[in-house]
């Protein structure tokens, strides 16, 4: 087997297109997972069981089923109910929704770690509930959980190739299309493997550095 640099060069247009899609899914999926995760975490603390129980049941169900199954459900089943999204939108929603159930547990742990005295101080100052959460509780909780949220961003990056199963033109799907047209598999797959390493490894170092900084 010989390495064909011309195959790498020919793959570059597809590579950049796939990289752009992968990063788009990663950014939007992360924002969705962080936002929904906070919603689930606050719902866990709702005084009404009619809120807590459905949210608990839903998050446990999502965490207990594979992301690939959820992708297929959203992409193939929802259209039968009249709900249609593009493959890219479906993939972004699936990743964001799936990981929101994990970030919800991270948020909950961060909220639970806020000292009881902070809650008592907010009560003593007669702060309204929204002010207590936005100015006292959440800033302290987020500071504690930022490294954990960063780890889930890396996990989402490594799960983006699953979107190729529904035709999203991310890195893996672009490499498959290139290989199908040229019958050369080594170069495209090696290039995207290196790309994932070059994104994930520096990101993991950044998360570790952030964790050490926040621990001071």
TrEMBL record:
The record ties this protein, via InterPro entries, to: AA_ABC_transptr_permease_3TM, ArtM/GltK/GlnP/TcyL/YhdX-like, Ectoine_EhuD, MetI-like, MetI-like_sf
- Pfam families linked to this entry: BPD_transp_1 (PF00528)
Membrane-spanning ranges: 20-43, 55-75, 81-99, 149-169, 189-210
- Domain ABC transmembrane type-1 residue range list: 19-207
Q: Which PROSITE patterns match?
A: ABC_TM1
What SUPFAM superfamilies does the annotation carry?
Answer: MetI-like
Where is it located? Cell membrane
Keywords per UniProt: Amino-acid transport, Cell membrane, Membrane, Transmembrane, Transmembrane helix, Transport
Q: Which family does it belong to?
A: Belongs to the binding-protein-dependent transport system permease family.
The name this protein goes by in its record: Ectoine/hydroxyectoine ABC transporter permease subunit EhuD
Q: Which organism is it from?
A: Streptomyces sanyensis
- Show the taxonomic lineage: Bacteria, Bacillati, Actinomycetota, Actinomycetes, Kitasatosporales
């Amino acid at each position: 087997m010989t390495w064909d640099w011309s195959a790498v060069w020919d793959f570059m247009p597809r590579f950049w297109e796939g990289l752009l899609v992968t990063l788009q899914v990663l950014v939007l999926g992360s924002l969705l997972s962080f936002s929904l995760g906070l919603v689930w975490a606050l719902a866990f603390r709702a005084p009404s069981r009619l809120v807590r129980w459905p949210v608990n049941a839903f998050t446990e169900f999502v965490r207990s089923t594979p992301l690939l199954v959820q992708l297929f459900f959203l992409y193939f089943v929802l259209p039968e109910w009249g709900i249609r999204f593009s493959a890219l939108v479906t993939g972004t929603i699936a990743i964001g929704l799936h990981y929101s159930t994990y970030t919800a547990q991270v948020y909950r742990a961060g909220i639970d770690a806020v000292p009881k005295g902070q809650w008592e101080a907010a009560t003593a100052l007669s702060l309204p509930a929204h002010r207590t959460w936005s100015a006292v509780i959440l800033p302290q909780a987020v500071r504690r959980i930022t490294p954990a949220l960063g780890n889930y961003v890396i996990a989402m990056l490594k799960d983006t190739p699953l979107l190729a199963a529904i035709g999203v033109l991310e890195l893996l799907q672009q490499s498959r299309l290139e290989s199908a047209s040229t019958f050369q598999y080594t170069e495209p797959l090696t290039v995207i493997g290196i790309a994932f390493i070059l994104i994930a490894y520096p990101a993991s170092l950044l998360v570790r550095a952030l964790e050490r900084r926040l621990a001071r």
